[in-house]
Amino acid sequence: MNNEVLIEVNNLVKRFDNLVAVDGISFNVRRGECLGILGPNGAGKTTTVRILQCISPATSGTVSVFGMKAGLDERRIRALLGVVPQENDLDPDLTVHENLELFAALFDIPKITAKARVAEYLEFVELSDRASDKINQLSGGMKRRLLIARALLNEPKVMVLDEPTTGLDPQARHLIWQRLRALKNKGVTMVLNTQYMDEAQQLCDRLIIMDNGRILKEGNPKELVKNEVGYEVVEIRDYKGEENILEKLKGLEFNSETVGDTLYLYCRESKDILKQLAGYETISVLRRPATLEDVFLKLTGRGLGK
Asked: Taking the model in full, what pTM does it have?
């Protein structure tokens, strides 16, 4: 990864009538990195990536891809992107091989070149033995892998992945992560829109966390965890019989948050906290490492959105 900026977004705004879906955000994507966009439903993630793909126009602000402006150079920008959409839009009447051939034709890829690429990328996503199958014969994970193969046919400089593993079982998700890491190791730049914290930690060099159309935080996943939460979390449940639990821990270094029946203590090291809590049989205590999910929930809230 280097510092060359491939995508630059400045003061981006998208309105749908009275709804502000994206509210003045700015960020960039550097060559060779995987930038993750995290946020709850309705945060503005998909709207943002649709604008990057030149599918939806911005209300105001600018988006530049390889120095070309979205809204002015849409065809040229699309030719450089590989897109894995949120929804499966494969043609169910065609076979796996025919779907890829059709897509290659849309990009005016010569037939001899297209034939070689279809074979190469089917092998890459481990679907060579399903080339003659119709789409409805594939599992959900296979369809997502096929969408990745399709996105690679034009040999894109940047891949835009909109929730690529939503609804898949753990085995399928891990296989897709392996394929995406292999692409990243080859220098492919990625923009990943996801709701999965483990996916973001597996793949992303840098994250932006969005809510209500705005960017709340930006940074490296490990640094975000360390700076926003700490190193360890102590979860205390059934503590209402010990109403002065925070008073008993006075003088120790931690940040706290109460959600429902659980008290969360975020700290650098939990040893002294656990020592103070030893012997209280009326409470349930769980000690664990801090995670990106803690950061996400701290910033966006633990309640369900409207």
From this structure: 0.88
